[in-house]
Specification:
Number of strands: 8
Helix content: 25-40%
Radius of gyration: 18 Å
Strand order of the largest sheet: 5-4-1-2-3-8
Strand content: 15-25%
Order of helices and strands: EEEHEHHEEEHHE
């Protein structure tokens, strides 16, 4: 049964279906001046969403900006098409909540869909503490974001292994750089989508652990851009 999300649920079992697990890629540093985009707040450039039904099936949807233009209008339009007007929207922390409220302030919400979505946000870290798994690759050192982008020397999949949010942001900036070659752009796109999915899988597992259940099976879905 699909229910309306209660305000500020205190128990994980009270979080309404369908449950939308949402991870947003956020750029903390300003875009290059050549793009003409200088938003006053952190810029979202990617989202990944797993929609869990009460039967336990999770469908997967995603968006990634690859053009280097202002990604916010298309990002929001595609996201609202997925999260609809029912069920809970689970995000990792208050940071994502603040970012979505920021989008409401700077973009036109003519249908009220975003305002409705903001009433259904649930912070997963209220129910469980997410623990980062130790990395299987070499550790990252120094202040260079590119240091945490691991490129395989010889692999069937030549996409880089993004180790953390800093690496993902560096990969996005390289992706939208007009000087980046087509093959490299394809590799970076694959890596960013994969990183978003892995981060979101952690969110799904963290919430499942807080309810004492098993993470649901994930059915691959489309990119919405």
């Amino acid at each position: 049964m699909t229910t309306r999300q209660p305000s500020n649920p205190t128990l994980a079992r009270d979080v309404a279906f369908p449950r939308h697990y949402l991870q947003i890629g956020i750029l903390d540093t300003p875009l290059p001046m050549s793009t003409g985009i200088q938003p006053p707040e952190p810029l979202p450039y990617q989202w990944s969403c797993h929609v869990e039904t009460e039967s336990g099936l999770i469908e997967q949807f995603a968006f990634l900006d690859t053009r280097g233009l202002d990604p916010r209008p298309e990002l929001l339009e595609t996201l609202l098409a997925v999260i609809a007007r029912r069920g809970a929207i689970l995000v990792p922390s208050a940071r994502e909540v603040a970012l979505l409220h920021g989008l409401q302030r700077c973009l036109v919400d003519s249908t009220g869909a975003l305002a409705d979505a903001l009433t259904r946000l649930v912070e997963v870290d209220r129910f469980a503490v997410r623990k980062k798994k130790p990395a299987a690759c070499r550790s990252v050192s120094g202040d260079d974001p590119a240091a945490s982008v691991i490129w395989p020397e010889d692999a069937v999949d030549p996409s880089p292994d993004l180790r953390d949010d800093r690496a993902a942001q560096a990969a996005y900036l390289e992706l939208i750089d007009a000087r980046t070659q087509t093959v490299r752009r394809r590799q970076l796109t694959h890596a960013l989508v994969r990183y978003g999915d892995l981060q979101l899988a952690e969110l799904v597992h963290a919430f499942a652990e807080s309810t004492g259940g098993d993470p649901a099976w994930i059915a691959p879905g489309p990119m919405l851009n």
